[in-house]
Amino acid sequence: AAASYTDSSDDETSPRDKQQKNSKGSSDFCVKNIKQAEFGRREIEIAEQEMPALMALRKRAQGEKPLAGAKIVGCTHITAQTAVLMETLGALGAQCRWAACNIYSTLNEVAAALAESGFPVFAWKGESEDDFWWCIDRCVNVEGWQPNMILDDGGDLTHWIYKKYPNMFKKIKGIVEESVTGVHRLYQLSKAGKLCVPAMNVNDSVTKQKFDNLYCCRESILDGLKRTTDMMFGGKQVVVCGYGEVGKGCCAALKAMGSIVYVTEIDPICALQACMDGFRLVKLNEVIRQVDIVITCTGNKNVVTREHLDRMKNSCIVCNMGHSNTEIDVASLRTPELTWERVRSQVDHVIWPDGKRIVLLAEGRLLNLSCSTVPTFVLSITATTQVRRLGLDQALLWGQQPLTPVSSPQALALIELYNAPEGRYKQDVYLLPKKMDEYVASLHLPTFDAHLTELTDEQAKYLGLNKNGPFKPNYYR
Q1: Strands, sheet with 4-6, edge to edge from the N-terminal-most edge strand
Q2: Residues at the annotated binding site?
Q3: pTM for this one?
Q4: CA distance linking residue 43 with residue 40, whole number of Å
Q5: Where is this region: Disordered (predicted)?
């Protein structure tokens, strides 16, 4: 039996049951309300101000249309920032169809603005599980449409095409995947010998790792918690599960606010970093009874189990900052003896028979994108990296050298540069060159009025470097 559930939100007609058209008469989209397009357009325009590199890219490459002929099917968070990315892809010549990778993170007005400007977008905030897969299918399964590139965040779109449309999957030129979870799923395919398209690792490029994962989470974790719970952070005991880039960002922010922070970790190197940064390394069982907040950042499954949830103290806040909603075993809480109360949007109280309650945020899904927003500037960096991986400035960045295949078991996501000549990339997993990361970073420096030092010829020779980079070897982390 399902848990009893009180929900204050009024029941509305599903967007799937509405007949909507944009001003040009097209109905090839499914959003909450097309009439919100004007509000969404303003949000996109604000985001453009904070995304200098993408706008520069758009301006510079618009004449060349380097993505002409690209048919990109995408599954990402649909926010003002990703809208700037999508419209940039369109300006560079690509045809795009888009769905949301998270049932809560879509900004309805932004989806409406994209639909109004002619993008086939299938997404709204608060989709059901069934809606989620229906939207993905509507992106993919279209008469006369054969995508040749996939831009994915979490691997669900890739998985859907691979499972349901194997012939379509074989014709894909490359896949861009930007989450730890999706990277892991792709590697599993590769290991099983079922990967029939070239692959590269997007998540592990430095500009993605540091900016989107570390700095972005450092800024948005507090925002997500504050908006949902109005809590005070000083003196609170918090356990952060995982000390990768996301965990590091969360811990830094909470420590700065005066919280007492514990860390759990499986990797001895990350564990040692946590200790050196002044955090107490523990097992979850050791602190579960005393902590006020539990935050998962691992990309793994069942990190917080029903047993942990049973032992938490009253009013403990439980949330997830990793991509997947598998880290907290939410399914185990949907049992008859527990009562669910919807307190406000994205906030549930789960109440035990003895009256104890925990505060579950976003039903265990991504906290910052479900419950707040993320800084636009860092997304400019990530999005620029993605566009470049879709084939821009290829000669400048890659020259004629193919990338180095990776065989390590931590790997990795897939991409194929849209303009790569036949045969350059095999059915393998590839690492991205440092030169590209450095170039993306350099595009953002003018925003800070920052001035790079240039090596003299003598200094460059002494270090054995090219004056223009790359400045670090590919294996540098």
Answers
A1: 4-6, 339-344, 347-351, 357-361, 316-320, 293-296, 237-241, 260-264, 280-281
A2: 79, 153, 178, 208, 212, 244-249, 265, 368
A3: 0.66
A4: 5
A5: 1-28
Say if residues 199 and 191 touch (Cβ distance below 8 Å): no
Distance CA 400, CA 424 (A): 9
DSSP 3-state of 260: strand
Task: Say whether 393 sits in a helix, a strand or coil.
Answer: coil
Please say whether the beta carbons of 427 and 196 come within 8 A.
Answer: yes
Contact of 74 with 138, CB cutoff 8 Å: no
Ranges in the chain, pLDDT < 70: 1-11, 53, 57, 61, 180, 199-212, 323, 368-421, 424-437, 440-441, 443-444, 474-477
Which class is domain 232-322+326-364? alpha beta
Annotated binding residues for NAD(+): 244-249, 265, 368
Identify residue 35 by its one-letter amino acid code: K
Q: Residue 326 to residues 59, 106, 218, 225, 291: CA-CA distances in angstroms?
A: 41, 20, 22, 20, 21
Phi, psi of 188, rounded to the nearest 5 degrees: -60, -40
Write phi, then psi, for 471 (nearest 5 degrees). -95, -15
Question: Which is the CATH superfamily of the domain at 15-206+376-387+404-434?
Answer: Adenosylhomocysteinase-like (3.40.50.1480)
Structure tokens at 242: 């995982």
Using an 8 Å Cβ cutoff, are 75 and 104 in contact? no
Residues 6+ apart with CB under 8 A from 24: 118
Compute CA distances 220 → 106, 326, 367, 371, whole Å: 16, 21, 9, 10
Q: What is the DSSP string of 192-243?
A: TT---S-EE-STTSHIIIIIIIIIHHHHHHHHHHHHHH----TT-EEEEE--
Report the relative pairing of strands 339-344 and 347-351 from DSSP bridges.
antiparallel
- Determine the Cα–Cα distance for residues 101 and 74; give it in Å rounded to an integer: 9
Average pLDDT for the chain = 81
Q: Which residues are annotated as a binding site for substrate?
A: 79, 153, 178, 208, 212
- The tokens of 431 are what? 């690492």
CA distance 191 to 188: 5
- The structural domains of the chain, with segments of one domain joined by +, span 15-206+376-387+404-434, 232-322+326-364
Read out DSSP for 436-460? HHHHHHHHHGGGGT-------HHHH
Q: Measured between alpha carbons, how far is 109 from 8 in angstroms, rounded to an integer?
A: 22
Cis peptide bond upstream of 433, omega within 30? no
Q: Which among 154, 133, 129 has a CA at the least distance from the CA of 323? A: 154
pLDDT digits (tens, 9 = 90+) for 242-299: 998 889 999 999 999 999 999 999 988 889 999 999 999 999 999 999 999 999 998 8
